[in-house]
Input
Amino acid sequence: MNSEQLADLFRRCGDDVFRLAYSYLGSRADAEDVCQSVFLKLAEGKTVLLPGKEKSWLLTCAANLCKSQLRSFWRRNVGELDESVPFREESDRELWEAVMALPPKYRAVIHLYYWEGLDQGEIGDVLRISRTAVQTRMQRARAMLRKELSDDEELLAHDGTGHAE
Output
């Protein structure tokens, strides 16, 4: 793959790779590192991408690197930084925060399905899990989000005096 093809692929898929890494790791800096590592692996020239499967390979590579980081000794023994992502609507921020509060394995399937538009089979391929595992994780993640977001709606329905508006 020449540098022009690599740059074009980065323009088309770089944000997708970054968002997946960020959804896994919850850190902008770590997500940028993973994104860079994925494209460096591709630039080494040892990988041949099948036409039409480029994004799938990139997301699979990113997911694997994120899983490795989450298992690393250093990752488990450092504190987290407070990073905020800008959103136009407050409801988008609340939804993002609810998704980011999910455990990584649930967060990943939600991200890949809703933000990247992958179907359950593709998600299974990217995460290297069965379609049944994807379905189970999606159901559990949706239930957790439903509970979290419905709790927030109940708080918003009251005017602060304990009475509904």
Observations:
- The helical segments are 3-25, 28-43, 54-71, 73-76, 90-100, 104-115, 120-127, 131-157.
